[in-house]
Design goal:
alpha+beta, elongated, 13 helices, two-stranded antiparallel ribbon, 10 strands
Length: 429
């Protein structure tokens, strides 16, 4: 069904860097959700202001003669008119469709250009000037623009806030629909359809899930804030020294050819779940999962070493899991939108690629940190010497948790020659 968009031109559409559907889990408290994003077909962002605006582009009627260029917006997408989908949308958003994108931006006192930047950052698709937005969308624009006007956020930072929130909640919403609601909406009685079960189930779950989401977010925000304020100086708040590790399933590509899709999905889910639990339980942070690989970080080398070895030990005792290899590096990293970047991260990735099966390789800086914190001896000779000295003085010998074995120096693509160390658990005599 074609949107009547004769009053708006086809503006340039920037490259999308997040998924196109995200739902607002906090209703009017956050107000950032599109009234149409929940059905996955379209979002609120209009391409241009109505006719007469300096931002308008050639009339859309010309698209009937020439194909729409790749860089322009196709306004044939329209929010769904399915009655149940609209009822579910109204239930989730708590409001009816009232505004076109231009009307929402004008009501919020925000330029159409800035509104489009916010909506696209949140991951919502362009819908021309279809009437699909709610009071919550207007409130969200007011709040973001108000933070900029008050000087609390710069405009680029406000866009980044919108993008990080959109990307995170889009993934959460997709997971909840695909994995959670799908399983719960199995018809309880013969003759009932999944559709008949969905509405009352969402009605019951929505307030509970909303409260839980806010609780977890506040908890995570408190933990992240605590880590930042404990940084040694202002520079370290942005560029921090962390231990960064990758854990990678060995031979995953071959598994994809051998296993059925359902079996492969179960294996990946088990790997990600086990990794997430172990990382969290031992004081690390799971940065992201990449199917056959997880990226984690820790504030100190001892925590990262414990996580790495626990991952290896746990996966080794699981017969359904392939072998695992881990690489860890320690150093300065740049954090952006919950992710980590920099040479330290690249080095950890390279170490993972050359690590032996069910083995952990670390870089020299990580090894030095373990020695400095007395979590590992510099060598077994040093350990024996320290034990002898302690015995002579009638004291307890040092108790080391880990052992380090130097490996042959080798060139690592893009990083030159490195000298990795193999990490293992040490049994003190």
């Amino acid at each position: 069904m074609t949107v009547d968009d004769t009053n708006s031109g086809a503006g340039a559409k920037p490259p999308s860097d997040s998924s196109s559907g995200a739902s607002d889990s906090s209703g009017s408290s956050s107000g950032s959700s599109s009234a149409v994003a929940s059905n996955g077909s379209a979002g609120p962002s209009g391409s241009a202001e109505p006719s007469g605006s300096s931002e308008s582009s050639p009339a859309s009627s010309s698209s009937s003669v020439h194909p729409t260029p790749h860089h322009e917006v196709d306004h044939t997408a329209e929010p769904t008119h399915d009655p149940l989908a609209i009822r579910l949308e109204q239930l989730i958003l708590g409001a009816d469709r009232r505004y076109t994108p231009f009307q929402a931006a004008r009501t919020a006192g925000v330029s159409m250009e800035l509104a489009s930047r916010f909506w696209r950052a949140m991951g919502f698709a362009d819908i021309g000037q279809a009437k699909a937005l709610t009071e919550a969308d207007v409130l969200a624009l007011r709040r973001l623009a108000g933070l900029v006007e008050a000087g609390l956020l710069s405009e680029p930072m406000a866009v980044q806030v919108a993008r990080s929130t959109g990307q995170t909640t889009a993934r959460l919403a997709e997971w909840q629909i695909d994995s959670f609601l799908e399983g719960l909406t199995e018809p309880p009685e013969p003759g009932m359809t999944r559709t008949e079960v969905t509405y009352p189930l969402v009605e019951l779950l929505l307030p509970e899930l909303e409260e839980f989401l806010v609780y977890v977010w506040r908890r995570q925000l408190a933990a992240a804030t605590g880590r930042v304020v404990q940084a040694a100086d202002d520079e370290e708040m942005v560029d921090r020294r962390l231990a960064v590790g990758f854990a990678d399933l060995v031979g995953f590509t071959r598994l994809t050819r051998r296993l059925e899709e359902e079996e492969l999905g179960e294996l990946v889910e088990a790997f990600e779940t086990t990794s997430a639990d172990l990382v969290a339980a031992h004081g690390g942070r799971l940065i992201k999962t990449l199917g056959d690989e997880v990226l984690f970080a820790a504030d100190d080398s001892g925590t990262a070493a414990e996580i790495a070895l626990r991952l290896i030990e746990t996966m080794t005792h699981d017969e359904t899991m392939p072998a695992l290899r881990v690489g860890i590096a320690f150093g300065t990293v740049t954090t952006r939108m919950g992710d980590v970047f920099g040479t330290t991260v690249n080095l950890a990735s390279r170490l993972t690629s050359i690590a032996p099966k069910d083995g952990v390789l670390v870089d020299g800086a990580f090894a030095e940190e373990l020695v400095r914190t007395e979590d590992a001896p510099a060598s077994e000779a040093d350990a024996a010497e320290a034990a002898a000295a302690a015995e002579k003085e009638g004291e307890e010998p040092p108790s080391y948790r880990f052992a380090l074995q130097p490996m042959w120096q080798r060139p690592v693509r893009g990083l030159g020659v490195v000298e990795p160390w193999q990490l293992s658990r040490r049994t003190n005599a």
